[in-house]
Amino acid sequence: MSKKAEAKKAEERHCIVTGEVGPKEGLIRFVIGPDGAPVADLGEKLPGRGIWVSASREALETAIRKGLFSKAAREKVEVPEGFAEDVERLLAKRAADALGLARKAGALVLGFEKVLSAIGKGEVAFLVEARDGSEDGSRKVAAALRAHNSGTEKAQPPILRPLWAAEMGLALGRANVVHAALTKGSMKEKVFGDLARLESYGRKERPVHEGLA
After folding, report:
1. Cys staple from 109: which of 9, 29, 147, 181, with CB 3.0 to 4.6 Å?
2. How far is CA 127 from CA 48, 65, 78, 109, in A?
3. CA-to-CA distance for 14 and 22, rounded, in angstroms?
């Protein structure tokens, strides 16, 4: 096995729900806290044996319903009420923070016209659209992306819609943000990973309170 293949295999984890093995980016790590409750370790730095669940609300709810945390931890695990919603909020907070960091690093383009300009210059690594943005605006941005990549063998940059406009605006210090583009650079992997994990998990409903906590 090559070193590259070995490194890739080392980054794979086993989901306690599906039984499948896959890249860490597609799963959420949990550890059992001192109080016997699971803790979402989104930064993957907390001490303790990691318990991995596919990054979807359905998978997490299945793990809770079937007592799979207790089985994986080999001890009684008490899952608090509303845990799946708490995990969604944590994922949303982390995704919003990642956008904020990208903005501070000068790697994020905001606004419809500026995003279209970045697409035309071939500077886009991926797009971020607000979940509640207008369908017309989203169609125009997607069409511009397709047109720019038409006739080339390059893969089209992905479009993610994990956050609501108010969440994006709060994270970026503006009223409401609907269209954003991450330009090519070193932050792509981290920002994409945090946003894609939230999108994969799924949003139940629009937050009813201000803030992301």
Report:
1. 181
2. 36, 35, 39, 9
3. 7
